[in-house]
């Protein structure tokens, strides 16, 4: 019993002590959470005074009224346009201790109030231009003088011809001098005007330059290809070439394209970017050229004897080279014929390739036929199932023989194997035209 009473007394004592501790702690925490209201009115007044003083310094914001309550700024009154109202809002929002802002400004859109700043700016701009006009003239004169000196230096052709390996690079260097002189003059002029920061802006506009570079990528590629072709010299003027699928004789190499004269006498312009990457076959580089053709004999004939007969006939032709001499091989054996492949070489400087091949085919064919070899002809099997006989007109023989055309003796023009000079004459006239530039230089080694 006594122990129970003692326990009860102890518990009561502990509860009283805890309650007293809580009473002592609570006022302290309450005092920490309470906002000191003693500075409330001076703070709002200070915010309002600061904003009003700022607006008083700006003529366009003189009609804006300010009220501040608990850090909440309310703007009222009127401005001429939306831009002035937004400016007032931005300035008020930048003041310290502003909690939020409420825009109640009336945009009057008054004509006179909106035009007055524009007229004032124009007057100030005109006055500033009038004061700075002498400085502008000095900067313009500096730009003109430097650019003119660069232009005069670029026109000294003898200097650039001596520095550059060919005409195209010489013109390119001269043009580069003009551009550099203009850029230097522009920098001097901007420095005179005190626009050095603008020069830095131009230097930082590399992204724009990169975008322009991508836009003119094809043009730059063609331009660079022209430089490389003028240095490589893959062909000469009057060379018979095949560039990819295009065949013709080279007329000239310009800064943009390679001009060919087709074998039909037509002009063909190929962009240099395509020529630089193309597969080029040059027939003129090596004057000796081989031609080939095929002839068939009957399957019962001796193919080796036919080969010997054809080679002997080709060797008798004056335009056919003896070293290397003509050759023949069996190409294929069919059901009714044997195909023999003949080849021989000619010098294109003295013999037209097409004419020489044509006469060689004729000589081999005539020799085979004269030697008793049979050149096979197409065999057709016709089958008639009860077809009635066609009536013959009166006076017409039943079996009329087909008249053969009279043989015409080959004249000297057909037997003439000299190269055709007509196309070369046309190309010479093209190259002699005034003002026509050619980047091909015969003094440079050909690749």
Rounded to an integer, what's the Rg over CA atoms?
A: 50 Å
Helix content: 40-55%
Low-confidence region ranges: 1-38, 398-402
Counted by DSSP, the helix tally is 14
For the termini, the CA-CA separation is 126 Å
Notes on the structure:
The chain is of the alpha+beta class. The protein has four domains: 38-109, Histidine-containing Protein, Chain: A (2-Layer Sandwich), CATH 3.30.1340; 130-213; 228-285 and 421-440, SH3 type barrels; 288-377, Alpha-Beta Plaits. The chain contains 14 helices and twelve strands. β5 (240-243) and β6 (246-253) form a beta hairpin. α4 (111-154) crosses α6 (167-192). The longest helix has 44 residues, at 111-154. The chain is elongated, with a radius of gyration of 50 Å. The model is unreliable at 1-38 and 398-402 (pLDDT under 50).
List its salient traits.
single chain, 447 residues, alpha+beta, Histidine-containing Protein, Chain: A, SH3 type barrels, 4 domains, 5-stranded antiparallel sheet, 4-stranded mixed sheet, 14 helices, disordered N terminus
